[in-house]
Structures are given as structure tokens and as C-alpha cells.
């Protein structure tokens, strides 16, 4: 089954609350293998008020949240019944499943937010020796002990000050040795 992005309609002003509630439900109901990312698209704008300039975030789609999931009866139920959610966009009727966003649409949303869709091809296996390329653990080598494909992260044991230390890194922060 494919994972796709879907648009969820929420009460206006409740987008961040829906995101938090949905993430809690995903964790508590063990749905992290079917529901992957919840996104409230925002863009930063510089505003000048009373001679002071500050950066303010505005919602790109007020009243909507984007959810990446594999559409099953369970995942559909979990999202639909999250407090603050009024329904999916693109469903023909109350009993029909919604249509996913087109790839071009979600790519445009990510581009406008300045975010790259960080889907990375997985070419790591448990036990691989890797070098951390960036972040606070750059230049440390270690072995992969855990892989979370859904989140695009790996747990790597690095040798720091003579001690084995587990660190969590994104797939794009490491490379095979």
C-alpha cells in the first residue's frame, strides 16, 4: 500500500491543536506504521509594527492540516475522529474514502515552505558502519543499531570520550563507510 498526503479540514484556529492531538493519538493507538507525518503549512513573513521589525509565521491554508498516511479503515478512523477534525477534503460522501493530494501539489507546498520532502531511499541495514556527516556528532563513526523508516531516522552508537553513546540522526546526516 502507498503512503500519500491527504488534506484534513479542521476548525479554524485549531490547526496546531489538531496536529498535537493527532500525533498523540498516533502514538497511543500504535498507528505510527500507518500515519507518518502531520503538517501545518506555515510561511514566515517580516512585519514592521511601531518601528519594530519581527518575523511572523502565517498559516498557508487556515483550517487545514496535511497528513501523510497509508489509507486503511483504521488510519481513516483515527484521523477522522481526532478532536477538531471536521473531515477529509476530497471525499465524495460520508462513507467514501478521500482522494490523496497529487505529487505536484505536495511538492509545491513543500517548496513554498522552503522544506524539501525528505523522503530518502533507505540503503542502510542494522549493523552498518556509518559516518555522521553533519550536526553535533559530525565526523563521528558508529554502527547502526536501530532504523525508523517512517521517521527517516537511525540510531547510531558512536564512541565518544571512550564511551559508547547512542545518537539519533536523520538518514541524510549519515553515509556508509
TrEMBL record:
Family annotation (Pfam families): KOW, NusG
Q: Where is the NusG-like N-terminal domain?
A: 2-113
Transmembrane annotation, as ranges: none
> Which keywords are on file for this protein?
Transcription, Transcription antitermination, Transcription regulation, Transcription termination
Q: Which GO terms describe its biological process?
A: DNA-templated transcription elongation; DNA-templated transcription termination; regulation of DNA-templated transcription elongation; transcription antitermination
Role of this protein: Participates in transcription elongation, termination and antitermination.
Classification via PANTHER family: RHO-INTERACTING TRANSCRIPTION TERMINATION FACTOR NUSG, TRANSCRIPTION TERMINATION_ANTITERMINATION PROTEIN NUSG
The protein here is known as Transcription termination/antitermination protein NusG
Amino acid at each position: 500500500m502507498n503512503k500519500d498526503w491527504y488534506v484534513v479540514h479542521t476548525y479554524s484556529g485549531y490547526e496546531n491543536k489538531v496536529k498535537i492531538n493527532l500525533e498523540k493519538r498516533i502514538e497511543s493507538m500504535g498507528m505510527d506504521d500507518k500515519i507518518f507525518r502531520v503538517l501545518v503549512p506555515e510561511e514566515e513573513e517580516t512585519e514592521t509594527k511601531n518601528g519594530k521589525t519581527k518575523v511572523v509565521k502565517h498559516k498557508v491554508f487556515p483550517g487545514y492540516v496535511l497528513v501523510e498516511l497509508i489509507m486503511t479503515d483504521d488510519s481513516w478512523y483515527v484521523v477522522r475522529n481526532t478532536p477538531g477534525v471536521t473531515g477529509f477534503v476530497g471525499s465524495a460522501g460520508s462513507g467514501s474514502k478521500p482522494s490523496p493530494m497529487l505529487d505536484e501539489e505536495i511538492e509545491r507546498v513543500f517548496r513554498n515552505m522552503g522544506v524539501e520532502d525528505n523522503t530518502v531511499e533507505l540503503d542502510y541495514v542494522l549493523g552498518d558502519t556509518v559516518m555522521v556527516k553533519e550536526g553535533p556528532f559530525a565526523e563521528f563513526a558508529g554502527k547502526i543499531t536501530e532504523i525508523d523508516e517512517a521517521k527517516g531516522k537511525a540510531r547510531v552508537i558512536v564512541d565518544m570520550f571512550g564511551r559508547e553513546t547512542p545518537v539519533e540522526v536523520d538518514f541524510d546526516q549519515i553515509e556508509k563507510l
